[in-house]
Amino acid sequence: MKIYTKTGDTGTTSLAHGKRVPKDCARLESYGTIDELNAWVGLLLTYVNEPVDRETLIGVQNNLFVIGAQLATEAPQVPSVAITSDDVVKLEQSIDSMAEELPKWRGFTLPGGCRPAAQAHICRTICRRAERRILALNSSEEVDAELLAYINRLSDYFYVLALRLNFLQGTEEILWHK
């Protein structure tokens, strides 16, 4: 199988059901940023050893594929998979579970610390950008509410994961101060 089709050489690509669109349209920007986030999560996984964190991150990667499929499917077509309220709840439970293990919050932290935490912060910021891209799409075409909620929680997850990873490695958080 050849990976290249040459059909995108003029600046268009196909959505999930075959419709051709410009490669710089809001829909592609949104799921392209999700794809970028998924790649960064893959890098984060190379630094994470805790089984519970690895399991959650692999689940996140799978959900990012689902989100990509949802965003690549234009109405009235229906994607074959979708983010559900259960996915949002599961992410919230992961956040709550990690937060229970952490010391009391002392203030805003600067991104960084140990390598895995720094990588989690990169994932957090790319997730926020993906959310902005998806919201831009949502201003012209309705995006599923559960997908929006999941992406919003996901950036919170990466923030708390960064705190956890620094805590587990005994790395002191650098607090923001003016």
Break the fold down into its secondary structure elements and pairings.
Layout: E1 12-14, E2 20-22, H1 26-45, H2 51-71, H3 85-101, H4 115-138, H5 145-168
Antiparallel strand pairs: 1-2
Helix pairs in contact: 1-2, 1-4, 3-5, 4-5
Structure described in brief:
By secondary structure, the chain is mainly alpha-helical. It is built from 5 helices and 2 strands. It has helices at 26-45, 51-71, 85-101, 115-138, 145-168; strands at 12-14, 20-22.
Beta-strand segment tally:
2
3D shape: elongated
Order of helices and strands: EEHHHHH
Task: Please describe the biggest sheet, giving its number of strands, its sense, and whether it closes into a barrel.
Answer: 2 strands, antiparallel
- Helix amount: 55-70%
Mean pLDDT metric: 90
**What is the first-to-last residue Cα distance?**
57 Å
Radius of gyration: 18 Å
Name the structural class: mainly alpha
Query: Beta fraction of the residues?
Result: under 5%
Strand order across the largest sheet: 1-2
Q: Please tally the helical runs, counting DSSP H or I stretches of 4 or more residues.
A: 5
| Poorly predicted runs | none
Structure overview:
The protein has 178 residues and is mainly alpha-helical. The chain is elongated and about 50 Å long. The protein has five helices and two strands; from the N terminus they run E-E-H-H-H-H-H. The longest helix has 24 residues, at 115-138. A two-stranded antiparallel sheet has the order 1-2. 60% of the residues lie in helices and 3% in strands.
Key features of this structure:
single chain, 178 residues, mainly alpha, two-stranded antiparallel sheet, 5 helices, elongated
